[in-house]
Amino acid sequence: MKKWLILIVLIFLVTLQLTWPVFLVFFNTKPDLLLIFAISLVFYFNFKIAFVSAILAGLLKDTFMPSGLAINTVLFGVWSYLTFRLSSQISTENNYVRLAIILLIAVLNNTVLGIQSLHSGNYIPAGIFLRNLIIPSVYTGAVSPLIFKLTKRISA
Amino acid sequence: MFKLSRKTLVNLILAACVVLLISAFSPFFKDSVQKTLKPQLTLIDLFKRECAGIIFYHRNMIELSRLNNEAENLRRRLFDLREIEQENGRLKNLLSFKQRSSFRLVSARVIARSPDSWSSSIIIDKGRHNGIRRGMAVINTQGLVGRVIESAENSSKILLVNDPSQGISSIVQRTRQEGLVSGSLGSNLIMRYLPDNAQIAVGDTIITSELSQVYPKGLLVGKVINIGKEFSGLSRYAVVKPAADFSSVEEVLVIIP
Prior knowledge:
The complex is a heterodimer of chains A (156) and B (257).
Chain A: H1 2-18, H2 33-44, H3 47-63, H4 71-89, H5 95-119, H6 126-155
Helix pairs in contact in A: 1-3, 2-3, 2-4, 2-6, 3-4, 4-5, 5-6
Chain B: H1 6-55, H2 57-100, E1 104-113, E2 121-124, E3 137-139, E4 144-151, E5 156-160, E6 168-172, E7 178-183, E8 189-194, E9 205-208, E10 220-229, E11 236-242, E12 251-256
Antiparallel strand pairs in B: 1-2, 1-12, 2-5, 3-4, 3-12, 4-5, 6-7, 6-9, 7-8, 8-11, 9-10, 10-11
């Protein structure tokens, strides 16, 4: 039942991310709801479910990306695994710690995506590169408590 | 039967004269009477209203709530109507553009936007079923929007002009100077590989060139807003403000070759 709920929430979040309201777009950026959900699953579910869901979330995101490279599928899986390893090292019960983890992962995710874009020969001015690195990461971190609540509710 | 005595008749005439006299002079004292009585009347009216307000408090409260609801509904309807009006205007523009244009066009509506900030794409509600194929150019009434990179049965993915992986062979309309326009994920485009002596100036119009394999010749790309020198110092670049506003694009036209 919970697996179905996760799938429904994934579909809901991808729809929300694709149709994110224009008035909530800051500096042409929006939060990565799927990334938050994929990571928050590690905090509330067992690793197997969280890892498979993270891969699925990445796959869903890649479906709507213009490039053919399934980079998000790989990255989401990696972040999910690293979060699991980290949560066995430190306590992730506190919401602030979880928020910090999301912020860190969002920055890392955006850095990898940015470097990959530059590596494929795309020209991105430094200002826009930094904007795309910092603002969506902070925005993702700011939105994460809402997704935590949602994940907590479906795990209960 | 109706015979009046002389005295009664005189009295009646006198009374009529008095009434006439009063009515003739009434405008003169009407204003002053009204002015004198106004404060008292206002006070009484205020008192009456306050009393009525207290007595009919509950009825007024329900009435207020009903009117607030009605106002809210009307406001919402007005908002909807404004939205419909704007949509109507846009569609009218599209229709007239479609009739004026020499290309075969398919109009489509934007249903989704790219999920992250590292790419710039949209998804439209028309696909292979409507004759849309990969590589087709997409425009709107303002200018060039992008090209189709994927087409499913009933939807297509469009790579917008401001995506960094875009490269559009373009020319300056005035001087026919060639260059390559590419996106930078920002609100402006960059026209690169311009020679040092390129004939280009701020305000020049940039259009697609005939060298482009994807885009038909002559599509409006944008206007030059700044010119600079590349870091290497070998060539110049121009910052181009796109004709189409990508953040608010809602309807597009796909060019069917």
